[in-house]
Amino acid sequence: MKSKIIIVMGVSGSGKTTLGSMLAEKLNTDFFDGDDFHPKENIAKMSNGIPLTDDDRIGWLDRINEKGVELIQNNKSGVFACSALKESYRKRLSNTLEKEILFVYPKGSQEVIQRRMDARKDHFMPSNLLDSQFSILEEPKNAIEIDLTKTPEQMLEDTIKKMALSEFGLVGLGVMGKSLARNLANNGTKLSLFNRYVKGSEEGIANKFINSFEELSDAQGFEDLEDFVESMQTPRKIFLMIKAGKETDEFIEKIKPFLNAEDVLIDGGNSHFKDTKRRIEYLEKEGIYFVGTGVSGGEEGALKGPSIMPSGNFDAYKTIEPFLKKIAAKDKKGLDCCTYIGPEGSGHFIKMVHNGIEYAEMQLIAEVYALLRYSNQMSPDEISEVFKEWNQGELKSYLLEISSEILTKKEGDNCLLDMILDQAGNKGTGNWTTVTATEMGMPATMITSALFARYVSSVREKYGNLSLITEQSFIKLEIETVKNAYSLARIINHQQGFTLIKIASEEYRWNLNLSEISRIWTNGCIIRSTLMEEISAVFKHNSDIFDDLSIFENVNKFRSALKTFCVSSLMAELPIPTMLAANDFVNSLNGEIKTANIIQAQRDFFGAHTYQRTDAERGKFFHTNW
Ligand code: NDP
Predict the structure, then answer these.
(1) Domain 165-344, architecture per CATH
(2) What is the pLDDT of residue 12?
(3) Could you write out the DSSP letters of every residue in 175-225?
(4) Which residues make beta-bridge pairs with 9?
(5) Looking at domain 354-588, which of 3.30.450.40, 1.10.1040.10, 3.40.50.2000, 2.60.40.1520 is its CATH number?
(6) 57-70 pLDDT per residue, tens
(7) Which pick of 316, 497, 514, 548 has the fewest CB atoms within 10 Å?
């Protein structure tokens, strides 16, 4: 066993000291009574019958924590019996010991404990003391629970048995699953791992993976689903990192017979938010929780700290929260890039929109690259330098950073980029965002155009032999102009994406917190950027990016640059659908120029669809016999 700090916690009379000392003996490690760590002032207060406050307990908790840290530094374990009644106390005790600490909780009703205390010879426990302990007791969500009505020997046996069980399960050892498993193990989580297998050809996948990484030495690999489920502490917490779609439904059917009420399935795949809602309702009938969880960061993010977006039943979320927070990226203030998003499939919804925003962000970089490469006639290395410089300032983003690196990658004398087939794939989330936006009547024009740009790249080959007359003319643009155009297009993209989330939140009554959502996207995820940090601050006081004056000023300030970018690109015959979408969106916001009125007139002409008038009150409809 790796070194552990085991805290046996509970109210007075729960048997924590007896169990703790027996456990220490069994594990051949030192036992510590938490009460021995009280500073002098606390002892004085207690002996005068003055109750301790939360502030008084800070010093006490820190001293226990320091002892724990000292033990771990010396590769030793220790068992402490300690009241640790509140979540905040346990957090304090866990400070820097998050990977090593384990709570054991002898659990029982107040009546049972009072009866036990009354039966103890020479020991009187006033019932009001027990009352107050129970009233402040916040039961731990992630402790090993032991039934305190059993004999101490049985409690010890149960504790040892449960300690051998895994805390967390993970299914699907593909790109993401492997990284997440290593991240969980690196953060001290004892894991059970499962991957489907093909008899005779692909066997022992989980165990081979476990044997390849030192941090997984405590993990257990399985090929039998029932054994996998039985290997975990209850309620079970199982991360599914498998293919989204019918594969997820099929897997749920396979694992369901082995699960119990209160077990939690966490779907970290890119599932559709409506499927997630359906699955939550389906499993709820059996009392099984299903937490739809967006995960972003790719392979590296999953290993080092992804952005995590869980949704569904809040109590179920609370049981998995410590595990998810441990592996999540941290924002600039050190807060976890993981937060409860909301009910139903809201986590998968925002992950879908995240991916949509990502599509447009990637396409914008591609279009800036096109202008610099073909119109400005710059080399990939020169463009890389431009991106690198932008990435030092307010345009800093993960996607810009990797694009700058991509442009310098060589294969022999060639730029690797030039050897890559000009065809972009997709896995469907951009499509879902587009469909959802159209269903909701929302103009996510940039995401849509970025999606269609990928589709166009796939059909282009078919028309490869068309002889188009070219009349390209190249106007070299100032880098500053390109930068400003790109800045504005990004603002529009984020405005459209977040508005889609806001409207969905209203429509589905999810009550989403846009500031928190953008905050957890400031690190770990693919669309992390300085702009996202600004947006998170804006959403603290506004519900629309345009409500922030300094951002809206940029729309006016950079309009002309965006227009110039588009004109130059068109003159050079460059495909720039997403920049054009941004430019069109800005133009369409201008109320002076009217075009929808003629659409409405046409509708009224052929279909008597009626129209509203500028000189009449809203909601009053007119029809003309054209
Ligand atoms: P991979 O293709 O690398 O792995 C898929 C995993 O799913 C494999 O372990 C595979 O098993 C398993 N699997 C496939 N079908 C079934 C099935 N019918 N029953 C049980 N297991 C099955 O994909 P990723 O790791 O990249 O992605 C996993 C999930 O995470 C997907 O939903 C994806 O959309 C999502 N995701 C991916 C991100 C990424 O950057 N790659 C980012 C965020 C989310 P086997 O090896 O036997 O085929």
Answers:
(1) 3-Layer(aba) Sandwich (3.40)
(2) 85
(3) HHHHHHHHHHHHTT--EEEE---BTTTB--HHHHHHHH-GGGTT-EEESSH
(4) 82
(5) 1.10.1040.10
(6) 999 999 999 999 99
(7) 548
Averaged pLDDT for residues 507-536: 97
What's CA 61's distance to the chain center, in Å? 31
Tokens of 470: 């070219």
Residues 6+ apart with CB under 8 A from 107: 10, 14, 139, 145, 146, 147, 148
Cα of 288 from ligand 1 centre, angstroms? 23
CB of residue 270 inside a 6 A radius of ligand 1: yes
User: Is the shortest distance between the CB of 429 and ligand 1 below 6 Å?
Assistant: no
Confirm if 238 and 264 have CB atoms less than 8 A apart: yes
358 catalytic? Reply is yes
- Determine the average pLDDT of the residues in 418-444: 94
Task: Give the pLDDT of residue 201.
Answer: 76
Choices 3.40.50.11810, 1.10.287.3610, 1.20.5.320, 3.40.190.10: CATH for 594-626: 1.20.5.320
Cα 130 to middle of ligand 1, angstroms: 50
Q: Grade residue 126 by pLDDT with cuts at 50, 70 and 90.
A: low
CATH superfamily of 5-163: P-loop containing nucleotide triphosphate hydrolases (3.40.50.300)
Distance 18 CA to ligand 1 centre (A): 47
Q: Among 173, 179, 196, say which to mutate for ligand 1: greatest number of ligand atoms within 8 Å of CB.
A: 196
The answer to whether the CB of 443 is under 6 A from ligand 1 is no
Tell me, yes or no, if 351 is annotated catalytic: yes
Q: Name the closest-CA residue to atom 46, ligand 1.
A: 174
pLDDT tens per residue across span 141-175: 889 999 999 999 999 999 999 999 999 999 999 99
Q: Is 177 in the pocket of ligand 1 (CB under 6 A)?
A: yes
**Residue 499 CB contacts under 8 Å (≥ 6 apart), including other chains:** 442, 544
Asked whether 243 lines ligand 1 (CB < 6 A), one says: yes
Q: Assess whether the region 5-163 and the region 354-588 belong to the same CATH fold.
A: no
**Is the beta carbon of 249 within 6 A of some atom in ligand 1?**
no
Q: How many CB atoms lie within 10 A of CB 157?
A: 15
Residue 536 CA to residue 531 CA, distance in Å, equals 9
pLDDT surpasses 80 at 467 = no
Distance 295 CA to ligand 1 centre (A): 12
What is the rounded (10 degree) CA torsion for 205, 208, 210, 214? -160
Closest ligand 1 atom, residue 271 Cα: 32
Q: Quick one: what percent of the chain has pLDDT higher than 70?
A: 98
Which of 358, 367, 533, 534 is the catalytic position? 358
∠619-621-623 over CA atoms, to 5°?
A: 170
Cα 339 to ligand 1 centroid, rounded to whole Å: 23
Instruction: Give me ligand 1 centre to Cα 199, in Å.
Output: 20
Q: Per the residue annotation, which of 351, 361, 367, 533 is the catalytic one? A: 351
Domain ranges of the chain: 5-163, 165-344, 354-588, 594-626
